[in-house]
What does this fold into?
Amino acid sequence: MIKDFSPKALEVMLGIPGTKTLSGNKIASYPVCRKRFAELVGLLAGANIPTVLQTPYEGWMSELAKYQAA
It folds into this structure.
């Protein structure tokens, strides 16, 4: 588990999929990129996620659960 990200770094990371950047577009367009991003989010320690970021974090965790169930 990754524990040492600052709240700002977590905000940037969890905000990438909603941006019109190369990374954001790849996560939105390619299922393999979406899966890999969900796996990266799964490495974050849930206890260290700020309250304001719990909703996107939980969304990615449910996305990860879908991939692991398949």
